[in-house]
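We both want to read discrete structure tokens more fluently, so let's practise on a single case. Would you write everything just below, so we can both look at the same thing?
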Amino acid sequence: MLTKQLQAIRVHSINWVAQYIYITMLICLLGYQNIQADGRDSLDRKLYIALANNGFTGTIEAKFMQELNRPIDQKRANLGRLLWFDIINGLNDDNTCGGCHSPTNGFGDTQPIAIGIDNNLMVGPSRTGPRNQRRTPIAVNTALYPRLMWNSRFEALSGNPFDNSAGFLFPPPEGLSLSYLPHLLAAQAFIPPTERVEAAGFNFPGNSTDIRNEVVRRLNENREYKKLFKQVFPDIARGEPINFDHFGKAIAEFEFTLVFSNAPLDRFARGQKHALTSNQKKGALLFFGKAGCVQCHQVSGESNEMFSDFRQHVIGVPQVVPTYGNVVFDGPGQNEDFGLEQVTGIEADRYMFRTAPLRNVAVMPAFMHNGAFVTLEDAIRHHLDPYISARNYNPSSLPPDLQGPLGPIEPVLARLDSLLQTPIVLSSEEFSDLVDFVRNGLLDPRILPQHLKKLIPNRVPSGSQTMTFEFNFLPLGFDEETIASSEVEEEIAIPLKLELLQNYPNPFNPATTISFSIPSSAYTSLKVYDMLGNEVATLVNEEKPAGNFEVTFDASSLSSGTYFYKLQAGSFIETKKMLLLK
């Protein structure tokens, strides 16, 4: 085969040096094709195909910045950070965002079921006080969520948290009234300070508007906050008072800094083949295949690669009920959580909860909407066979006030989602690989406690007492060596840049220089096409590391007209038009 192709070379059209180069290139090309054929069934190839089939690119963090369409306002974000940790916003004077969304656990809960007001100002395993009804959701990456909370009661009706054109829907009394705000998070920030069991307490009279007015009164009367708000918002600098729009936008801006979506799987998808271990790659293939996880933990479309379809399902979670709490549970025995039905009033929605996004779950101390499972292994086992798991559930691993009695389970299992009704059997090795992938393959190291700890202010502008955060513990599944050896991957996917530096190719000056940059190591091609889509030149076709590059294109053989460059690096594709005049 090779001999026939070499014989077909038109040697009379090129000198012997060019002939030698041509033959060498052809041999290399054929050798590369054979290698590709031999590796067609490799683990990497299978996983790249699975990711492509499911619409996963590993570039969501870059896309978030494109959607934001501006740099993050660092002064506004810092103001939001201070508000996050300052109990001036909680009228019970003992809780604020950081009390439940803690940097010790990726800005998620430190408890299986949240403890809001009347706490002991501790944030961590030692936190005590009356329980709420559910576990506090993780706040990291929520800037990319189209629906928030376990029962999706805060929703961008467009499916895009940046798009308020269809409205942001909230339960009464807010309804659609917050839809003028620029992002779902800016609207959602209006709610926590008004929640009696989370921050407001039961002593202050009035409705949600009265509570918000009291919060902004406190802020307006605080000299230091007034100064900080003036530095961020021009209307306040002109003499306008702080209002809750300012508060919501500051909180949202801080949450924009908490987009941590550069896990090993993202880097693998962008061409870094060694970002995942072999076991994690096998686990990923199970996740997207045999184990069926991706059916609910989706990555395409409005899921924004967050590993959630952001829909409601009944998955048969045991009904954990605190013995000491400040929320009245549902059902005749007041020992059930009706989930979505609480929002819609529709009985068919009973026991439904939003699919939990799986990014960074490794830092969570408990799983499911009520923290029923305290190890990732048990949470995954439950999904493989909910009937067996729920009927044999033992709450002994939970804190004493959550160990029972449990609510009824058979009414829950009677409504189990059809996707979970057939048990999935995995070998012990397969199960281990799947856990490894979910725990480590989806973990952005920047979310680990030692990195987020620096966000806690030493003091807050109000001068209020600060909460004590416990960092002297590790999430289950981690050890000291894992934490100590974690490296923060600073490289984040950035959009491709393809710039034509010299648009003057002609027979007298045939060299056109093209520069481009790629965000991470990837197999890269740069080709030229005519207006009919015919390929006229291949300029780059090889593995490239991350960086900036220049290539020279000799266009002297082309006729005048319009041509296109097409640059592809991994999942990135960009094109640019060139007008050739001679």
